[in-house]
Amino acid sequence: MRSTLQCGLVVLCSLLEIGLYAAAGISPAALAEDALDKMVTVDIPAQTLTKALTLLSTQSGTQILTSPGLMGDRRTDGIHGQMSIRDALSGLLRGSPLGFHAAGENVIGIDAAPETRQEHNGTQHDGASVATPGPAPLVVAQAAAAGATGQEGSKQPVTLGEIVVTATKREQSARKIPATVDVLKGKDLEDIGARNMEDFLKYVPGITLQEGSTGNNRTVSIRGIGPQGGANTTTGALIDDVSMSDPYSSYVVVDLDPFDLHDLEVLKGPQGTLFGASALNGAIRYVLNKPLLGVTEGKGFADWLSVSQGGAAPTLGGAINIPLGDKVALRAVDVVQEVPGLYDDVNANGKNDIDADKGGKHMYRVLGLWQPTDAFTANAFFLRQHNNRDDLSIANSPGGPPPSGQFVRNDTPGPSTSVQEFEIANLDLRYNFDWFSVISETSRSRKSQDINYDGSAVVDPLAEQGIQSLRLHVQAHTLAISQELRLASPSSSDSPWVWLGGAYYNRYTAHFMYNVPLANTEFLVPILGPGGLLSNPDRLQAITSKTPEMMEPFVRADINRHIDSFIERGACDVVAELAEPVPAETICRLMGVDDEIVPEVRKAALAMFAAQGDPEEFGRKQAEFGKITVSEVHKRREAPRADYLTHLAGIEIEGRRLDDNDYVVLMAAFLGAGHHSTTSAMASLVNEVFSNPVIRDQVRADPCKISVAVEETLRLRPPFFGFFRRTTRPVSIGGTAIPSGTDVYVGWAAANRDVKAFEDPTQFRLDRGSNRHLSFGFGIHTCPGAAMARMELRVLLQELFRRVPDMQVAVDKPTYHFGGGDYCYMESLSVTFTPGRPESVE
Question: How is residue 435 annotated by DSSP?
C-alpha cells in the first residue's frame, strides 16, 4: 500500500494515496507589470531598433522577446538619462506600429500594436496569433517566469499573442505560468499528421524519447534527466487532469493519438505538487477538445503510408460534435491506424512472415457536456486505445546488409508479439462562485500490456535451424481509482493573488507476471548466453553467485502456477501443493532434468528421504532414485547438453571419472539440500507468518519485514537441527577436550536459541535486530545454496501477500516430524483464504 500527503513535500508509504495540497502566490502578471516601472539609467544612441532594444536589455537587466520580422530595418532616435523601462520603451518605439507588454517577471515582449495586428499574415487560434506562411508550421509557444530566453520565430512576421493553457489545473495564459511550458496546438498536430510521440516531441527542445529493448518500455527524458530502464518514471503523462503514470517502475507509457486535441502541454521542471511523484522532472499533458454547446460540426482524415521495401496501410480518423438541446452536447472521436511492416521473419522451420512487424492502433473516445447554468458544468469522457505489434523490428540480414539481405531475420523460430491497452473513465464537476471555484474530479484508469519475445538467438546458435529454446512472456495490468476535490481562485479575477488548494484520494494496484518458459529444456538460461558459463565449460556450476537472480523469474512463475491451481478453492495444503513441488522443480531445472520426468524424480526423492530411519528400505529407495537419475547422466555422455548433468558426466577426480554410486550420492545430496530443506523452510515460514494475524498484517503492511520474517523462521525452525563434523585437530569447547579425528554433532538448532545470543529466543519476533543464526552453517561449511533458498522464501511471501493476502493457517498447532534423526518437517499444513482468480500465463 502507498499513501501520499502533499503540502509541498511528498511522503511515500503505500499504494493508497490520501493527500492535501495548497498553493498561493502573487500573480506573475502582477510581478511583471511592476518590472515595467523599474527605474534604470540608459545611454542609447540613435541606431537600428534591433540594436537599440538589445542595448536596452543589457543596460536594464531585462529580457526582451521579439521577432526579427517585426523589427525590419526600422531605426530609432536615441534616449539618455534616468527613466522607467516603460518610458524607455515608449521612447524607442515612438513612431513605429509596435507596442510592448510584460511577458513575465523581468521579461518584456515587443508586439504589433493592437490597431495594426491585422496587417500581419496571421491566423487566430483560441486567442493565440500564429503565423501561417504557406503550409502551417508546427508552432511552439514558450513561457517562463524567470530565466526565459527568446526564440527566433519564423521568417514571416509573428505577433506575440495569448495561448491559454490549464497546466496549473486552472485556465491561465501560458506566459503567466511560473514554469517553462511548451504548448503544441491541436490543429498544428493534425496539420503535420502526428500519430504518436515520435511525431511531435521532436519539435519540443530539451526532451528525448527512448525506446525499450522490445519497443515497449519507453522512457522520456527532459533536459537530459530521465529514468534508467525499469526504474520509476520521472516524466508524468496526463490526459486532462488524469495521471496515467505508474508510481513504481514503468509498465505502460501512454502514447495517446493526438487527433482532435485542444492542445498538448509539455511542462518542464518539477510538477510533483500538482501531478504526483511520477512528474518530478516534468509532465506531458494531453488536453482534449470538449463538447461544444449549440454547434454541430465534424471533421475527418484519411492517410496512406507506403514503406519502401515494406508494406502499405491506411489510417482513418474522424470526430463529430452534436448538441442535444441548449444545455447538453456530445463529442465522439475515432482513429484506426494500420502500421505497415518492413522486416521479414523467416526460419528453417517453415516460417515465412513477410513484413512481419506490422501492427495497428485503435483509439476512440466519447465525451459529454451538461451545463444547466452558467455557473455549473459537468464534463465526462470515456477513452480507450489499443496498440499491437505482430513482430520485432529487428533484422540480422543473412546474406549481407540491406539491400542485399533486405530487412530479414532468420533466428527467431517463434513469434514476438506485443499488445498494449489503456482506458480512462472520467467525471469532472465544476461550480463557479463569485470569488472561488469548486472542482470535483473522479477517474478510473486501467493499463495493460502483454509481450511475447522469442529470445532463442540469445542463447542458442541452433535458432536459425528452427529450434526455439527461450521465450519471454511478460504481462502487466494496472488499475488506478482517484477522487480529487479542489478550490481555486477565479481565472477572471483581477487580483494579483492566485491560489489553489485541494484534497485527493488515489488507489493504485499493479499485477506483473514475468514468465520464461523454455521450449527446449536442455538450454538452461542461467548458464547460457554470450560471455556466460557456456563460453567457458570449466566454469559450469549448478549454483553461482548469480544463480538466485537468474532463477528468480522461474521460481516466481512456478509459485504463481501452483497458486493458480488452488486459488479458486479458498483452501489448500501448503506443503503438498506449494512448498514441496516448487523447490523440486527449481533444483531439477538447475541440474537440467527434463520437465517430463520431474514428477518422477520428485516422487523417488521423497520416498528415499522418508526411508532414512530404515537402512534396508532406504537402500531400496536409493536404488530406485539412482535408476532414474543416473540414466540421465548416461544420456548426457551420449548427447551432451549445456547443463549440470553433462558437467557431472565429464568430471574426473585425480584422473578417475565418477561412477554411478558417486552420481547417486551427489544428486541425492543436491536434492536433499535444495529440495527437502527448502520445502520444510517454506512450510515453517507460512506457519509462522500466517498463523498469527498480527504478524501477518505487520509483514504485509511493510514489505521490508519480509526478509526479517524469513531469517526469524530459519532461526526458530531450521530444517536441519544439526550435522556431524570431524575434528581435524584437538580442541576444547566449554571445558570439554575433543581429540583430533573425533566425530561430533554440531547442533545449530540449539545455538539458534542460545539465550546469550538471542533475547527471548523461543519467540518469533519481527523487531529482532542482529540475527546471526547458524541454520546455513558457518565459515567454509556455509551452505552454497543459502542465497538461493533465501530468494525462494522471499518470493514465496511476496506472491502469497499479492495473491492471497488474508491467508490463515487452519490448524491450531501443526505437527512436526523428524526424518534421519535431524531433519524436521511438516507432512501437511492446511490454510484458508478468500478465493481468487487464476493469473494463467503460458
Answer: S
> Which residue do the cell numbers 556450476 mark?
541
Residues 82 and 63: their CA atoms lie apart, in Å, by 19
| In the predicted structure, residue 807 carries a pLDDT above the cut 90 | yes
Using DSSP's 3-state secondary structure scheme, residue 808 falls into strand
Residue 606 CB partners (closer than 8 Å, separation 6+): 580
H or E element: which one contains 826? strand 823-826
Q: What stretches of 209-316 show up as alpha helix (H) in DSSP?
A: 272-275
pLDDT in tens, 617-666: 777 887 888 888 888 888 888 888 777 788 778 777 767 777 777 777 77
0.70 exceeded by pTM = no
Q: Hey, what's the torsion of the CAs at 748, 750, 753, 755, to 10 degrees?
A: -120
CA–CA separation, 650 and 658 (whole Å): 8
Residues β-bridged to residue 497: 26
- The CB density around residue 185, as the number of other CB atoms within 10 Å, is 22
CB < 8 Å & 24+ apart, contacts of 391-398: 391/341, 391/343, 391/345, 391/353, 391/356, 391/357, 391/358, 391/415, 391/416, 391/417, 392/214, 392/215, 392/343, 392/345, 392/357, 392/416, 392/453, 393/215, 393/342, 393/343, 393/357, 394/343, 395/343, 396/457
**403 prior amide bond cis, ω within 30:** yes
From the CB of residue 39, how many other CB atoms can be counted at a distance below 10 Å?
A: 11
User: pLDDT tens across 202-213, in order?
Assistant: 777 777 776 654
Cα(362)–Cα(350) distance, rounded to whole angstroms? Answer: 32
Residues in the chain: 842
Q: What separation in angstroms does the CA of 616 have from each of 613, 619, 833?
A: 9, 5, 42
Q: How far apart are CA 92 and CA 46, in angstroms?
A: 9
User: Which helix (H) or strand (E) segment is 222 a member of?
Assistant: strand 219-222
Tell me phi and psi for residue 391, to 5 degrees.
-165, 175
DSSP class of 464? G
Whether the Cβ atoms of residue 841 and residue 564 lie closer than 8 Å to each other: no
276 half-sphere exposure, CB direction, 13 A CA radius: 29
